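Protocol check, entry for the methods section draft. Step 1: assemble the input record (protein sequence plus ligand SMILES). Step 2: submit for complex structure prediction. Step 3: store the structure tokens unaltered in the notebook. Ligand used here: flavin-adenine dinucleotide. Step 1 record:
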Amino acid sequence: MDINFTKEDIAFRDEVRDWLNNGGYPKHVKEKTDKGITISKQDQIDFHKALAEKGWMGYNWPVEHGGTGWSATQLYIFNKEFGLAGCPPLLAFGVSMVAPVIWTFGNDEQKAKYLPDILNFNTWWCQGYSEPGSGSDLASLKTKAVLENDHYIVNGSKTWTTLAQHADWIFCLVRTDSSGIKQEGISFLLIDMNTPGIEVKPIITIDGEHEVNSVFFTDVKVPVKNLIGEEGKGWTYAKFLLAHERFGIASVGASMRQLNKLKKIVSELDNPELDKKICELEVSLSALEITELRLLSALENGGHPGAESSILKIKGTEMQQNISQLYVEAAGEYAIMYPGPHGYSSNDKPAGPDYAANSLSAFLNLRKTSIYGGSNEIQKNIISKFVLGV
Ligand SMILES: Cc1cc2nc3c(=O)[nH]c(=O)nc-3n(C[C@H](O)[C@H](O)[C@H](O)COP(=O)(O)OP(=O)(O)OC[C@H]3O[C@@H](n4cnc5c(N)ncnc54)[C@H](O)[C@@H]3O)c2cc1C
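Step 3, stored output:
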């Protein structure tokens, strides 16, 4: 196992840093993310379009589909540097989730129609998997699609749909047959969000943000040509997609940035209890990074990511949550002075230190990380089955 970077890897890291620091990363987006202010739909578009212009939107795509063809190590470096620079997380729904399903299981017409728009961020995708009552037990989903001539008629609802309020398209798991076991009879449909009969309703989360939604389908007509692969084989495609969803979920770079900032803050507080907690987190973060590098080394030598990605998911998300908790502890009573998701207006001055202003909202928001992408309890089940063999 070799976990040291080569000369080429270091040159690549410098290229990424150069883009981030010298005008590639749009300034107006950086200003907001540095202050912890929620970025708008247009900011998201600007950020992703800048990436597309540089030719990096297909950062995890093979060259044959217009991607970078980067190695696992380059991908790791790219993710880490973006995290260290405080960039917003790259929206995964198009580029990392539905795109690999389309190029692996879609037909030529579907590849030509959808992939270039994803690569240029002309379309915003969302994920229609979870339903009320069908989250961890996803295969129990009930949203129904009935074939009538050359259309499916879709009825049902999806929930927790991230940023559906902005989306042009949704990829959906729907039930096309209820006669067999629940994993059978699920199909994978691409649905235009402008189709009549779709209604998006916001779910406001505990931090006051509008990030997730309910999506309702009433007699929505979906052309049969929007079916991916074979009818009834959607469960296979869904599992394939989830393996992609978990890649990069450890967010090592973003946690390093947060922890480095926190170290500076805590060094001025004269609070030995917090000092000790910071040291513990630093050790855990190093262990997490080494675990990720070990997995990378195995990948570069022809291995496949298995249940190890579940370990990274659990440890990475616990790290994010623990760091956010220390920000609240460092802010003390000032953490309560939460200004709302859009931050302070230019005339307001937050009470207490700057870092206190958004500490509580970040702490509350990050509770989601151990739930989405397959809850951490479900990841533990995977580890016990495939790593421990019990
Ligand atoms: C912020 C956020 C964004 C999301 N975005 C999307 C999205 O864009 N698209 C989408 O389709 N979904 C999305 N989800 C949904 C997410 O995938 C589900 O919330 C998740 O799979 C858990 O399902 P559930 O909420 O129904 O909880 P449940 O499955 O009901 O689980 C409740 C609790 O029981 C535990 N549990 C359940 N089964 C087991 C078991 N077998 N063993 C041990 N413990 C178990 C869980 O870990 C959890 O703690 C999002 C969720 C959140 C919080």
